[in-house]
Each structure stands twice: as C-alpha cells, then as structure tokens.
Amino acid sequence: MRTLRVLTLLSAAVLLCSAAPGLAPLTCSEGNGPAAADKAVHHINEYHDHGYKFRLHEVQGNSVEQVDGGCNVKLQLDLRETKCHTTNPKPFEDCELREETERAVKANCTVLMTIKDGDATITKYECDTRQVNTNSEMVRICPDCPVLLPLNDSEGLKSVHEATTEFNKNTSNQHYYILKEVGRISSGYIMTSGMNYYAEFALVETRCPVGSRIVIEACTPLCPDRARHAFCKSSYSSENGLLSNDCDFYPAEKIWIYVICYPY
C-alpha cells in the first residue's frame, strides 16, 4: 500500500514569500465596516478549501466593542457564490457571480475580529449557505431551469464518473487525474433526450503515468506544489450517455515553504 508522507520544513530561510496584496488598514472607528469586511472575505476564501469562492454582497451588521488597547468587531456578512472553484487561482474579486437562474447560492457569515495596535486578527467565523431563492420561488421565476441535486445523487455521480473516465481516455496529459470533489449537480428534463444531468467537478493530477496498467481510482495525488487541477463541466443524458465534458486546467498550488513529499 502506498501512502503519502509530507515533511514540512519551517525556517526563516524557507519562508521567503512575497507579500499578499495590501488591504486597507483597520481602525476601531464605527466606519471601519468596508475595510473589515474586505479582510474577512479574504480570510474566508483563503481558508475555504472546497466548493466555490465567494464575493461580498452586503454588510448586514457591524458592531465595535472598545477594549483596552483596541477593540472587538462583530460582522454580519451576506456573501454570494462565484463560478470560480477553490482550485482556480483567479482572485475572488475577479470571479463571475452566478445568475439567479443558475440556482445562485448565498452565505450568511458571522465574523469575529480583534484589532489591537493596528493589527487585525480574525478569531472566529461561521457561515451558513443556502440557495438565494427557494425551490418554490425558482419554479415561479424560471420553471424550466435545471434543479440543483444533492452532491451524492446516484445518477449525477454516474455522469461525473463517466466524464472522468472519458477525460483520462482522451488526454495528452502525462499523468492520470482522479476526482477531487463534485462542486454541483443539476438536472432538467428534455423531450428529445430524457433527463439530463449537468455537473461541475474538480480533478487532481496523480502520480500514475498515462498508459500504466493500474486501477486509476487507486492512484494517489501528486504533492500540492506539483499537482495540477482540472475543473470540468459535463452534460449527460439518461438515454444518450455523456454529451459533453469541457475542462479548464489550473497550475499547481504555490507553496511558500519547502514540502518534501514521497510515497513509502
């Protein structure tokens, strides 16, 4: 059995990272809402390692409690899901928002932050996600729009597995890819082809060379600083099988520390 061991070396010489894009300075004034919200959304997206990136829609609440040497800030934020998967390196500010007809998703987030001596630290955040419009509301807005399905829907997952298999059959890549996660699945009925399934999913590059005689599902991903990702959108018909599968490729993650990764 092959497993993955990761050795992380932390030292001053290793942590040679470039500075992140500058955010507006935070103060303990009542007018700090936009700057505090900006920092909060950056933090949420930075630590959100699955699904899609979010953008700020509205600051619904901002309370500031003065304490010795600084203040405690509580934010209530309304975020909207973008079309950028977390594997997409594009800054979330540049990501396109989903239309209501695409079953847009919102996140209601509570963020706690401390500001002391000019330094702001997010101590806790919680987010609840749901569709912007309920299913009954969507029936009135767009009765013919595809319906969101659970990510474990059996027919939806079948479409994803067929698309992944086809991806690995028709490829010029050096290594096989395996499923990282399913982002969303929706379905809609079409008279000419029956029930259609539309899936979005992320794949990750493995260490298994293309053409090797191995069960692909048993392959392990390359280390994060080497593994590329593919984000795919597929359509599948219950009567005609896989109809389309379009994928974008993203480079390996930027790792600002040395990571030694090897099988044993």
TrEMBL record:
Cite the entry's keywords alphabetically: Disulfide bond, Glycoprotein, Signal
Which segments constitute the Cystatin domain? 16-128, 141-248
Species of provenance: Oreochromis niloticus
SUPFAM superfamilies given in the database record: Cystatin/monellin (SSF54403)
GO CC annotation terms, alphabetical? blood microparticle; extracellular matrix
Is the Signal keyword given for this protein?
A: yes
Query: Which top-rank group of organisms is this from?
Result: Eukaryota
Pfam family of the protein (one): Cystatin
Which InterPro entries does its entry note? Answer: Cystatin_dom, Cystatin_sf, Kininogen_Fetuin_HRG
Record-annotated membrane-spanning stretches: none
Q: What is this protein called?
A: Cystatin domain-containing protein
Q: Which GO terms describe its molecular function?
A: cysteine-type endopeptidase inhibitor activity
- Gene behind this chain? LOC109194353
Q: Which residues form the signal peptide?
A: 1-19
